[in-house]
What does this fold into?
Amino acid sequence: MSKVRVLVGTRKGAFVLSADGKRKDWKVEGPFFAGWEIYHMKGSPADPNRIYVSQTSGWFGQLIQRSDDGGKTWHQPGMPDEAVPPPGPPTALPNRFAYDTSETGKPLTTHQWYDGTQHPWEFKRVWHLEPSLTDPNTVYAGVEDAALFRSTDGGENWQELGGLRGHGSGPMWMPGAGGMGLHTIILDPGNPDRIYIAISAAGAFRTDDSGTTWKPINKGLVSGFMPKPDAEVGHCVHHVAMHRARPDVLFMQKHWDVMRTDDAGESWREVSGNLPTDFGFVIDVHAHEPETLYVVPIKSDSEHFPLEGKLRVYRSRSGGNEWEPLAKGLPEKDCYVNVLRDAMAVDTLDDCGVYFGTTGGQVYASADAGESWMPIVHDLPAVLSVEVQTL
It folds into this structure.
């Protein structure tokens, strides 16, 4: 029987939740890297035993952790093989991120934009890790301030795909409330040269040449807080999702509005339909039904909690516009949690499972595509990310 492994990043460590294909009885392991913020952890599609973790601290900085045995043991790439996760503050900083450098080889603290002006740039944290679909040693990292890096040696060394940060629109990028993070990376399964990314608050971008050049793909987005609401860049995109069978069709949860493109981002249209509010952070797609979407509406951009204190997942079976609430097993009252942008995932079992985590420390699972929900755990630290592996 198939198994599932749910990878949960929280404000105070990482957790690994596992169950068989029935998804009723769960084993909870962790916390790993206790006390550290785990912005994201994700397994390799090419090797499910390979898991990458973004471990960060405002005091001690950023580390990358890697497991080669499904989360049983961990290793910091760039450190000796016998190294073990540090119980306290690190004594060295592995994971060498190579930035654009001067002739002396020293990292630059500013970036030369195409318009000739200097803009400070600070590497603060890794928001998202996206392993290659075919090579377990290749992984992409989206960071704050917004930039994209790639490692081809399992996280030992990193090189920036500098064409993105060097895009001429860069001076118009602004940090969202949580910072200027590159939080979404989507690899096209049919075209290895194509990558989609999203930045808060710059918008969505696409490369068709493996990251050498980038194109803003925001036509149709409208953001009322901007001086020019339909500008080419500057939109606060919260998350983007794609079904592997249709890499030209993308769904977006924006600061306000749920959006859809059928032409690889060349144009977008709103599909918020009858949602009670179209503000939210997460969006995902059913593993076997490309027109079935999931979102978690939040009251507003100033009140990050469910309407009326009732936690609801909303599902559309028509690719948007028509939405239904999914409430069975979820809190009916006095629930004032948020669900962050990377905190929802779907498995690929025949009866597609859906998972999400909350800032209140709950992780919910549905083994029937959202019809009913059960909590896997109640009292974790605030959940930052949820990913699932089907084994």
Q: What stands out?
A: Residues 77 and 281 are 31 Å apart (CA to CA). Residues 83-94, 98-118 have pLDDT under 50 and may be disordered. The longest strand covers residues 3-10. The chain has one domain: 3-390.
